[in-house]
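User: Hello, can you help with two protein structures?

Assistant: Certainly.
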Amino acid sequence: MLSSIVKEHQGRQSAKRDELENKRKNAVVAASTLTSALVDHLNVGVAQAYLNQKRLDYESKQLNTNITTFAKQTAQWLQLVENFSQVLKEIGDVENWAKSIENDMNTISSALEYAFKVGQET
């Protein structure tokens, strides 16, 4: 009787050990699956952040190129406006000179007419 109780006890212990071993294996598999899922989830975020950073780097380089081009174009426009302004000043100077010459010619013409009239009267 004692030996049958011992055998029964050993059988239950063996069954419990087997059950515990199965549960341990299932827990290890579940932990491994969970770890893989977490790592995959984190990797997706990291990969997305990396792609965003690459896109931002590319766009910042494009923006820098555009800014440089815009600065050059702005300098060219400023030079053109400055040249145009200078030409307008010169035109104003020429117009002023022409008016001065015209006034001088009118004065000379008036003087000649007066001299002619005085010469005819005498």
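That covers the first. Now for the second protein you mentioned:
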Amino acid sequence: MSEELEQTIFQIILHGGNGRSFCMEAIAEAKKGDFAAAKEKIRAADEELIRAHHFQTALIQNEAKGAKTEPSLLMIHAQDHLMNAMTMKDLAAEIVELYEKMNIHGGVN
């Protein structure tokens, strides 16, 4: 594996992990009732996932141009990490929205 490929894979892992962490922070903020902070964390998660997706897209484009890459456990881990984080963002946004609705209706203390 080339150093450039390895660095790209690590960027996917880094930004995917950052995105997932922001999602967990968003849920924690919503649980406390700070919905502005929760929404900011969701926005930050989205930015991180966009960064990760740009690196993923570069890998896909290179392969489409004929630069074949042997899959490695590290690459599979990066893809798994990113997809998990993307799912987490969708779920976190829903959870924040639910907490906010419950708060409006007097259900969260």
